[in-house]
């Protein structure tokens, strides 16, 4: 006698596939926002499943801060080739060169906030009407209020108090010229779900997620990778540690944790015992209580 | 990783801060060890700043800046926790009357609703409103948590009195499964751990109830309905002639070889294969996302529905619908709205408001013909082409619809087909 209910990972997968197919049906020119991080990798994997045996019918868009881990770029290019999809790159360096944005100054300067302009420009230039992201509601308190289909006005801004109600599985992606949507197929997944799924599906992820030896600097309670973009303070010291990253962002702001976990199942075990949220190591979220909400309002991922 | 075999339960909590709703959610997350150190630290700091004694668990559910400043919930917030038995999604919704639309949004996908009652005040108008919405949205399980039992000295009489009050008015509502649990969210009694202060209560604590209630029958597995989302045609060497209908099964079970009818065209065929990325499967059931191929070449596109020939949905242009108005612009008479129902979309007009429900007294009024934000009305809806539907009571997926105002693109109403 077979059972007629899904386990929770299958239900989350089915929901995400439904959202991806709905995006394809409701929009003319959607893209997947691909950062090289595990969440956008999982979304890409789900897109592969959603349209099989056809290819993923949309491009991947990468906002390149110029401050990348070299491993991420290699991983991105390999994946694009194996999927046979188009890659669109929005370059923060170009935005700076064109005078669209100005580089932040000082010790904790990052290009995190600058990405917003580059992203919105890339969306406009490529006439993208829906950008699919790997955002999850468990990540951050402002994200807890996000919809599957999230409206952005013609300035690319999110208005959290005036969101469209989203009932049952009926998504409303109607929009006027110049406006766009963000879609979040894995809204209901937690960090743990993502790792369990990567483990179950045997999904390839960048080596940065596994424990490895790296030159690092202790700053704001985490190990920041040493790179040419990092300005050292006098009391700071470059040391070599065995670390891994829980999230991947710009190389200047992504903190690593000391770890021995060198397989996905060991990572999943480590994550289940973690006592800190994954964004606890992201200095971009530490700037203020509402750092994420403020950036999201302006058009951040 | 045994958790992989477990089910997902979605529940909604309606109530205001005064009922202790935020404290209850904070308590569930805290006692099930779902709160991280950095979150706890942030809450401890805020609690201190605000001059609270100890950790204010309610602060865990604080979201947007405006909500924190005003100490209220405005929008639906989703929260997650997992126990060794189940994974849970909480749709945390505001309880105040002006946020009825958010409560309905949170309730639309829930397996269970938690309704909070203050043990000192008993059943009040807000309780009735929440229970009514839970029944309107056909949430399969309702758990009435009688909170703040510590403030009535954990007395059984207080609990019994509230059950009697609730039974009295809820007998008129269509609810299938109601349970009552006396709790103290503040002190943790009967939330995760069994209370030592209420020996007279023989039932299970809240978390155990959520972990063990039977939910696999919550989805209709009788009426096979497959709304086509999109058509997959790879046109590659390997899959030259593949033509798959992609979608998520709304209800029921489909098997290879089933005789099917495509609605609305009425063409019949047989299921040739049911495909997933991994493999071809012999049967598939709601809520699986699959791709179906048919024995015959039929013209099928998004908005069509594949059903079993022996069990078809109703088809009509004239529907009676319980409509909840969600937009701050009132309904305009004789205006055409876009109706979205399953993967289908067409135009519709509200022909008549049959009656409006007074959400506090649950009385009906046929005099008042205005439909404003948060109003719930029974209406007659006429669509340009027949809609393929089941009654909402039978099937939440094929019985639900939304209206979109084409002038603003806003989602203006949610409807449940009677």
TrEMBL record, chain A:
Keywords: ATP-binding, Nucleotide-binding, Nucleotidyltransferase, Transferase. It comes from the Bacteria. It is an enzyme of class 2 (transferase). Residues 29-254 form the Phosphoadenosine phosphosulphate reductase domain. Residues 276-301 have a biased composition (Basic and acidic residues). InterPro entries: PAPS_reduct_dom, Rossmann-like_a/b/a_fold, SO4_adenylTrfase_ssu, Sulfate_adenylyltrnsfr_sub2. One of its GO terms (molecular function) is nucleotidyltransferase activity. Residues 273-301 are annotated as: Disordered. Signal peptide: none annotated. Its EC number is 2.7.7.4. Belongs to the PAPS reductase family. CysD subfamily. This is Sulfate adenylyltransferase subunit 2. It comes from Galbibacter pacificus. The lineage of its organism: Bacteria, Pseudomonadati, Bacteroidota, Flavobacteriia, Flavobacteriales.
TrEMBL record, chain B:
GO terms for molecular function: sulfate adenylyltransferase (ATP) activity. It is an enzyme of class 2 (transferase). Keywords: ATP-binding, GTP-binding, Nucleotide-binding, Nucleotidyltransferase, Transferase. The keyword Amino-acid biosynthesis does not apply. Residues 6-221 form the Tr-type G domain. Its EC number is 2.7.7.4. InterPro entries: CysN_GTP-bd, CysN_II, CysN_NoDQ_III, EFTu-like_2, G_TR_CS, GTP-eEF1A_C, P-loop_NTPase, Small_GTP-bd. The keyword Lyase does not apply. Pfam families: GTP-eEF1A_C (PF22594), GTP_EFTU (PF00009), GTP_EFTU_D2 (PF03144). PANTHER family: TRANSLATION FACTOR. This is sulfate adenylyltransferase. The lineage of its organism: Bacteria, Pseudomonadati, Bacteroidota, Flavobacteriia, Flavobacteriales.
């Amino acid at each position: 006698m077979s059972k007629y209910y899904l386990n929770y990972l299958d239900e989350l997968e089915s929901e995400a596939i439904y959202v991806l197919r709905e995006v394809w049906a409701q929009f003319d020119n959607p893209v997947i926002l691909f950062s090289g991080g595990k969440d956008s990798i999982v979304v890409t994997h789900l897109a592969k499943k959603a349209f099989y045996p056809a290819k993923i019918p949309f491009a991947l868009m990468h906002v390149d801060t110029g401050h990348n881990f070299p491993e991420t770029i290699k991983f991105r290019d390999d994946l694009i080739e194996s999927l046979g999809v188009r890659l669109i790159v929005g370059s923060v360096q170009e935005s700076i060169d064109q005078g669209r944005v100005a580089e932040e100054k000082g010790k904790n300067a990052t290009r995190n906030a600058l990405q917003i302009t580059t992203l919105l420009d890339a969306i406009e230039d490529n006439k993208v009407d829906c950008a699919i992201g790997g955002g999850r509601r468990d990540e951050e308190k402002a994200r807890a209020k996000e919809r599957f289909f999230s409206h952005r006005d013609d300035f690319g801004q999110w208005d959290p108090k005036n969101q469209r109600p989203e009932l049952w599985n009926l998504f409303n992606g109607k929009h006027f010229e110049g406006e766009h949507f963000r879609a979040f197929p894995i809204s209901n997944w937690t960090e743990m779900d993502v790792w369990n799924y990567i483990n179950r599906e045997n999904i390839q992820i960048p080596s940065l997620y596994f424990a490895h030896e790296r030159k690092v600097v202790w700053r704001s309670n985490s190990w920041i990778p040493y790179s040419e973009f990092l300005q050292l303070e006098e009391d700071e010291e470059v040391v070599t540690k065995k670390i891994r990253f829980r999230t991947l962002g710009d190389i200047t702001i992504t903190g690593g944790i000391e770890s021995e976990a060198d397989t996905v199942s060991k990572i999943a075990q480590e994550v289940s015992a973690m006592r800190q949220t994954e964004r606890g190591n992201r200095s971009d979220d530490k700037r203020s209580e509402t750092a994420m909400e403020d950036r999201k309002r302006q058009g951040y991922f | 990783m045994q958790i992989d075999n477990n089910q997902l339960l979605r529940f909604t909590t309606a109530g205001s801060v005064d009922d202790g709703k935020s404290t209850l959610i904070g308590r569930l997350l805290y006692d099930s060890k779902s709160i991280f150190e950095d979150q706890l630290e942030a809450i401890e700091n805020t609690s201190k700043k605000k001059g609270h004694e100890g950790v204010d668990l309610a602060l865990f559910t604080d979201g947007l800046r405006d909500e924190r400043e005003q100490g209220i919930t405005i929008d639906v917030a989703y929260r997650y926790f997992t126990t060794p038995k189940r994974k849970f999604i909480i749709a945390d919704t505001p309880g105040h009357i002006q946020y009825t639309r958010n409560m309905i949004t949170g309730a639309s996908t829930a397996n269970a609703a938690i309704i909070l009652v203050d043990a000192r005040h008993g059943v009040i108008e807000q309780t009735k409103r929440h229970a009514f919405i839970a029944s309107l949205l056909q949430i399969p399980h309702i758990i009435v948590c009688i909170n703040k039992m510590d403030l009535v000295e954990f007395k059984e009489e207080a609990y019994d009195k509230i059950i009697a009050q609730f039974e009295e008015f809820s007998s008129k509502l269509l609810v299938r499964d109601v349970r009552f649990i006396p709790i103290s969210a503040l002190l943790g009694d009967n939330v995760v751990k069994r209370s030592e202060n209420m020996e007279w209560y023989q039932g299970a604590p809240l978390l155990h109830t959520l972990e063990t209630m039977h939910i696999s029958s919550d989805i209709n597995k009788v009426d096979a309905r497959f709304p086509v989302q999109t058509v997959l045609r790879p046109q590659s060497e390997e899959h030259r002639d593949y033509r798959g209908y992609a979608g998520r099964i709304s209800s029921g079970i489909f098997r290879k070889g089933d005789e099917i009818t495509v609605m609305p065209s009425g063409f019949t065929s047989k299921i040739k294969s049911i495909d997933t990325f991994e493999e071809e499967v012999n049967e598939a059931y709601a809520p699986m996302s699959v791709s179906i191929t048919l024995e015959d070449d039929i013209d099928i596109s998004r908005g069509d529905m594949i059903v079993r020939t022996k069990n078809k949905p109703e088809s009509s242009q004239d529907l009676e619908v319980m409509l909840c108005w969600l937009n701050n612009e009132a309904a305009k008479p004789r205006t055409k709205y876009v109706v979205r129902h399953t993967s289908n979309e067409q135009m519709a007009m509200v022909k008549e408001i049959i009656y409006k429900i007074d959400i506090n007294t649950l009385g009906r009024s046929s005099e008042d013909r205005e439909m404003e934000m948060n109003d719930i009305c029974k209406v007659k809806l006429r669509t340009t082409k027949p809609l393929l539907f089941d009654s909402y009571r039978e099937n939440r997926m094929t019985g639900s619809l939304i209206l979109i105002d084409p002038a603003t693109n806003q989602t203006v109403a949610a409807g449940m087909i009677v």
